[in-house]
């Protein structure tokens, strides 16, 4: 059953207000922090869908990213899990260069074997080091080689995308991207069929994919040609460069959503 966007907006705003004191006190688990940032992400998508403008979209994505910077900077390195940094994609997608760099710098530089698969770590680290921190080519080649070794003969479209981005391989990028988007669509359909998702997600992140938006920006950085529109990544959501960013501390201030109808 679909939920009206104004109600999704209200629910997300209330959830943010409830979670804020715990985030400020750094009294949240990693899962809770990702939920908190996810509320901002979804709220940005709602604002985009309701207004047809990117101002609110950019505003809330930036808030998600800077809240995550605050969280990472207070987290011991042994507890960091680089592959679980979805707000990094929020920062990239809204062109908040400072937030993206801060997340990349504060994220763990080594694999956390107790908490993540190595290939997931390598994927995120390659994107951070290659397109935000702009590390030397030898370092990136070493990460890519390790990624290939970890997978051995296994398939991972993310590896193909990373290879295409780092080598500016247009054909490989186009082919891998098409398959990746197809896999994402099928995964969404499966979740819907099995009722494994919330109404808020169906109204927001099922239609707009921040990871894809971020990778398209990286592709442009790599001088690859990208289409005007993609499923889950409409052109309007990519026209963000001229939109002013909020203060880095804006995420700390959440208006009341309780009385909104």
Give the number of domains: 1
Q: How does the helix and strand content classify structurally?
A: mainly alpha
Strand content: under 5%
Mean pLDDT metric: 96
Parts with pLDDT < 50 across at least 5 consecutive residues: none
Q: Please provide the count of β strands.
A: 0
String of helices and strands: HHHHHHHHHHH
Please give the largest β-sheet: none
Helix content: 55-70%
Please provide a brief summary of the model:
The chain has 261 residues and is an all-alpha fold. It has helices at residues 5-24, 30-51, 55-73, 86-93, 97-106, 118-131, 137-151, 157-167, 170-193, 199-203, 210-221.
Please describe what this structure looks like.
By secondary structure, this protein is mainly α. The protein has one domain (5-252). Helix content is 61%, strand content 0%. It is built from eleven helices and no strands. Helix 4 packs antiparallel against helix 5. The radius of gyration is 18 Å and the shape is globular. The two termini are 19 Å apart. The mean pLDDT is 96.
Essential attributes:
single chain, 261 residues, mainly alpha, 11 helices, 0% strand
């Amino acid at each position: 059953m679909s939920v009206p966007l104004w109600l999704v907006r209200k629910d997300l705003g209330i959830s943010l207000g409830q979670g804020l004191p715990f985030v400020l006190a750094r009294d949240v688990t990693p899962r809770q922090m990702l939920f908190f940032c996810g509320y901002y992400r979804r709220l940005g998508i709602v604002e985009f869908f309701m207004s047809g403008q990117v101002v609110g979209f950019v505003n809330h994505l930036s808030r998600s990213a800077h809240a995550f910077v605050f969280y990472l900077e207070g987290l011991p390195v042994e507890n960091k899990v680089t592959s679980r940094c979805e707000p990094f994609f929020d920062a990239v997608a809204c062109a908040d260069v400072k937030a993206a760099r801060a997340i990349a710098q504060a994220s763990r530089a080594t694999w956390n074997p107790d908490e993540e698969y190595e290939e997931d770590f390598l994927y995120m680290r390659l994107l951070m080091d290659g397109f935000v921190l702009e590390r030397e080519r030898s370092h990136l080649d070493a990460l890519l080689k390790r990624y290939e070794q970890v997978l051995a003969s296994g398939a991972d479209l993310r590896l193909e995308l990373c290879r295409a981005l780092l080598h500016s391989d247009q054909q490989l990028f186009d082919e891998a991207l098409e398959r990746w988007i197809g896999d994402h669509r099928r995964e969404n359909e499966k979740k819907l069929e099995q009722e494994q998702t919330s109404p808020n997600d169906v109204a927001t992140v099922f239609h707009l994919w921040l990871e894809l938006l971020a990778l398209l920006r990286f592709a442009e950085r790599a001088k690859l040609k990208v289409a005007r529109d993609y499923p889950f990544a409409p052109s309007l959501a990519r026209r963000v460069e001229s939109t002013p960013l909020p203060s880095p501390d804006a995420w700390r201030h959440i208006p009341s959503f309780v009385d909104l109808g």
